[in-house]
Design goal:
- The chain has 442 residues and is an alpha+beta fold.
- It folds into three domains: 146 residues, no CATH class; 72 residues; 144 residues, Heat Shock Protein 90, CATH 3.30.565.
- Helix content is 62%, strand content 9%.
- The protein contains eleven helices and seven strands.
- The strands form two sheets. Strands 2-4-5-7-6 form a five-stranded mixed beta sheet.
- It is elongated, with a radius of gyration of 35 Å.
- The two termini are 29 Å apart.
Amino acid sequence: MTPSPPAATPLLEPDSRARLNLEWLLRLRWGLLLGQTLVIGAAAYGLELGLPLPVLGALLGLEGLTNLAVRAWLSRDLPVTEGTLGKLMLWDTLVLTGLLALSGGTHNPFTTLYLVNVALATVLLPARWMWGLFGFTLMAFGSLFVLQDVELPAGLSRPDHAELMRLHINGMWVAFAVAAGFIVYFIQRVTRALGAREQELAQARALHARREKVASLATLAAGAAHELSTPLSTIAVVAKEVERALATAGTSESVREDLRLIRQQVDRCRDVLVQMSADAGQTTGEPFHPVPLGRLVEDMLAELHGAERVRVQLPTEAREWRVHGPPRALARVLRGLVKNALQASQTPRTVELRVQARGAGALLEVQDAGTGMAAEVLSRAGEPFFTTKPPGEGMGLGLFLARTLVEQLGGSLELRSTPGQGTTASLALPVTEPHAAPELAS
């Protein structure tokens, strides 16, 4: 997903977007405070300009107190709005005006810092606040022409005109570099942070959509099973009675064979409804429990046809790692992956199930010995009702339901395949050790 500026980010909730913007604005304000302190110190002690240091120091201290107040506001988890950002940026403009008015006014090359606030307002604030801050900045800059002629109280002084011109000429390049650097750094970091938040939210919405599909499948399967059970039973009974009547009447065997085919298809319809109900319903309704990986693998193999062709690599220490989830549904997920691998691998070729640590979790890899999948097939694997299996061997729900459950548990399911080299299904699950939090080496 391509990152976009904060103010144009539709995927973030308003409070979340404003809070994220305020956090980055606070970081920038600390940077500006440090930069202003260094510049004033260099001008006063390096260039020996006559500056009203007590008042400038008071303004800098006021900025620091404002930053601390904003941090306390964020730590208390109070609501943050775009108006909060706008008011804070208006205050920054006012403080900057005071600093500039006391250190050269319009002759101060660091008047370019006004552009930092204007640029940030364009990114962070809605149109009415942006234009309001723009107008306020113009008035603040214009006020410097008036304030530079105002006499300071006794004991305070400004640099003379010659010193101001020398400062202006020598400092223009430095001022431009500082202003441009702050703008580029802040906008780039905020855009990148919001891009990552967008991606997280998009993934959460995709997961929510998949869960809704699972719930819809369960409802559809239950309703279909309920509504179709009676007519299917009626068809089966009537077909049986007609077959008996035709047998008594001596009708040809081909006609009776057709009736038996009708009954077989009715049974097939029942099996499909039962499987849909089981696949969609058991995954969503089973309670969560800590499941040791060793037991999970054993339960998977216990009901698997062709288990003798599965080579399991499960380290001894990994057998007691626990996955918190629905036990039967987890076993069904793993069994489905291994079953797919067995169907893709011709007898007597074997399938490998490898369990290893990955970070703070476990990685279960199922590798078949089949012919692999083409890129266009791999890209669609996991879509509901998409399958390459022959009719009667699958409905295309296994991978979809498996990925939905695994992501609900905080894990992931990935498929890697190369034509002619087989397919590997990688199942990553968060785990805990029996008596302590995991510290597993990858």
